[in-house]
Design brief:
The protein has one domain: Aldolase class I (TIM Barrel). It is of the alpha/beta class and 326 residues long. 40% of the residues lie in helices and 17% in strands. Strand 2 and strand 3 form a beta hairpin. The two termini are 35 Å apart. The strands form two sheets. Strands 1, 2, 3, 4, 5, 8, 9, 10, 11 and 12 form a ten-stranded mixed β-sheet that branches. The chain has a two-stranded antiparallel ribbon with strand order 6-7. Helix 4 packs across helix 5.
């Protein structure tokens, strides 16, 4: 019935009514906390572009993971900053590498917390690219065995999911085959399926020390203008054996999140990336935004678009705020 018989404002009159008919809910259980792990002892190194985020030595990464678990955040994602780099990124598959050591340390203290190491070579290569260079180009096919080798190393360390973020063609199939050959056939793959060559990654480059020494990543990460191609990427990863898929970044790509969810019906993760985080932090520090309201609105919008889980640097704050609302 049209107005005045139908008045949509009736269900907005009180907080209780709004809560009763709320379509999308945000919970600490929907969040994943990223952590940057580095070698050394007893150090927390602030990341200037990301207020509140630090590079952590392993004992502090365990502390952060414990705080996340106490806030009912179910998972952490690990990014490693190695002591040494080389052209192949061999530190990525070192069984005594910083991420592998961190996985073991966290799982020993917090066996029920999901630990998801990011799988990419960019933090480990001396040139900063996500695979082996052939001239000025990343050699896709030569990189695949190294990604599979790294996945097996993560699995041996105790990872709960394998999360390749490199955007090489065929890497999900190569990783699945490598894991299965080593007896890790039950270990799921969370594929960064639609990862765009985004300006919103800027602060992450500082955090992970992964800026390419030459060129950029537009030859393998996706053109931000392409939505149909993103669906092709997602569906190809599903065909190769991905158990979960990801869209990265999140807020500028809510349409892609929705389309990917509708096309796959798989669990979908969205990455609320460093630039999205830094913008909110800067605006809140300047008094332009209410940080709490803005963060919760943004995370809810990502869930509304279709994400089942959100990787976000806001995770601990958001979990605290949500607990206060219960």
């Amino acid at each position: 019935m049209p107005f005045p018989a139908t008045r949509l404002r009736r269900l907005r009159r009180t907080g209780a009514l709004r809560g009763l008919v709320r379509e999308t809910r945000l919970d600490a259980g929907d969040l994943i906390l990223p952590l940057f792990v580095t070698h050394g002892e007893d150090r927390r190194t602030p990341i200037a572009a990301m207020p509140g985020v630090e590079r952590l030595t392993i004992e502090h990464a365990v502390e952060e993971a414990a705080q996340a678990a106490a806030l009912k955040i179910p998972a952490v994602m690990l990014f490693g900053i190695p002591a040494d780099k080389d052209p192949e990124g061999s530190g990525a598959w070192d069984d005594e590498g910083v991420v592998q050591l961190a996985i073991r340390a966290i799982k020993e203290q917090l066996p029920d917390l999901l630990v998801i190491p990011d799988l990419c070579l960019c933090e480990y290569t001396s040139h900063g690219h996500c695979g082996i260079l052939k001239g000025d180009t990343v050699d896709n096919d030569a990189t695949l065995p190294l990604l599979a080798r790294t996945a097996v190393s993560h699995a041996r360390a105790g990872a709960d999911l394998i999360a390749p973020s490199d955007m090489m063609d065929g890497r999900v199939g190569a990783i699945r085959a490598g894991l299965d050959e080593e007896g890790f056939d039950d270990l799921p793959i969370l594929a960064y399926s639609a990862k765009f060559a985004s300006a919103f990654y800027g602060p992450f480059r500082e955090a992970a020390d992964s800026t390419p020494a030459q060129g950029d990543r537009r030859g393998y990460q996706m053109d931000p203008a392409n939505g149909d191609e993103a669906l092709r990427e997602v569906l190809q990863d599903v065909e190769e054996g991905a158990d979960l898929v990801m869209v990265k970044p999140a807020l500028p790509y809510l349409d892609v999140i929705r389309r990917a969810k509708d096309a796959t019906h798989l669990p979908l993760v969205a990455y609320n990336v460093s630039g999205e985080y830094a913008m909110v932090k800067a605006a809140a520090a300047a008094g332009y935004l209410d940080e709490r309201a803005t963060v919760l609105e943004a995370l809810t919008s990502i869930r509304r678009a279709g994400a089942d889980a959100v990787i976000t640097y806001h995770a601990k704050d958001a979990a605290r705020w949500l607990s206060e609302m219960d």
